[in-house]
Design a protein that fits this description.
It is a single chain. The chain is an alpha+beta fold. The chain has four helices and 15 strands. Strands 2, 3, 4, 5, 6, 7, 8, 9, 10, 12, 14 and 15 form a twelve-stranded mixed beta sheet that branches. Strands 11-1-13 form a three-stranded antiparallel beta sheet, with no helix packed on it. Helix 1 crosses helix 4.
Amino acid sequence: MNEQILIDSLAAACADRLPNRADVLALRPFTLDDVRARASRFLALVEEATECAHDRANFATRDDRTLVQLANGARAVVYHASGALQFKAAGSPFESPFARVEERAVLTRIVTEAAQRLRLQEWAGDSGSLQFERLFQSKGQGADRNERIAEPVLFRATGAWRHLIGGIPVLGAASVALTLSGNGATEALAVHIRPGVAEKLDSTAIIAPETAARQVAANLASVLGNAKERLPGDVVASQTMRFGYLDLGKRTSQRVLAPVFVAQIVLRHRLETQAYVFAVPATERSYLDLPLFGTEAMVGRARGAGGKHCENGLR
C-alpha cells in the first residue's frame, strides 16, 4: 500500500472547501425534563404527520432511553444522552407501495415537500440549517420458476438531511431522515440533532488537510498492525475525507462541537473487504476525545479452503 498516494487522495478530497478558522461550540446541557418536553414536541409533530394521537401514549423509561408506545402499534424512542428522536409507524414494510418507480428528481421533490410541511427546518435551531444530502429507495423484485423477472416495485423513499451550523456540516448519522410510503404517509422519522448551542468557546485555525491525512494514515497503520507480507499498491479500493463537526452518536453524551476531519477508507485484498472510519482533530489543540476503535483487523477466511485461515490475508 502506497501511504503517500493515500495521504494525497484524502487531502485532495476536501482541500477546496475549508474555512481558515472555525468556532468551537459548547452544547446546551439538558435534563430529563428537557427530554420529556422534546419528546412531547416530537410526538405532536408525529400526530400531525400521521394522525397517530399521542394523548394515550404509553411511556416506558429505561436507563438510556424512553420508549413510547403509540396507537395501532406505532412506536417512538427518545435517547437521553443526545436527545435523538425516532418514530416508526405500524404495519408491514411492503404495504402501500408506489404506483411506479419514479425518477430520483421526482422522489426528491416529494420528500422535500413533505419535510417542508412538517417544518423539519425548525429542529436546526437559530444558528443552524438543514441541507438535503441523499435519497434512498427501498425496492423489491421477483421472478417465477421460468426465470421471468417481474418489474421492480418501489416500496419506500427516504430523504436524508445534514445539519449545518454556521455553514459547517455536523457529520455522523443523518441529522434528519424522513421515510414515505407510496400513498405519501410518513413511515418513519428520525431527528438526530442535539438540543442547541449554548455559547462559543473558542475560534481556532484549521490545520492543513495534508496534516490530517497523515494522522489518518497513521491510525490506519495502527489498526492494521504488522502484516506478514507487504500489502499491494491497489489495496485501497476507495477513500474520502470530509471536514465538519462530529456528532458522537445518539447514545453518547456530548458537550462540545469541535472541527474534525472524518475519513472513510475501504480496503480490498483477495477475498477480504474492510471499511474503516477515522476522525482526527482539524485544529492544533484537541477539544474532543476521539478514540481509535479496534486494535487489529478481522482475520480472513477463504471460502474455498475448508475453513482454513488465509495465510497471507489482512490481519
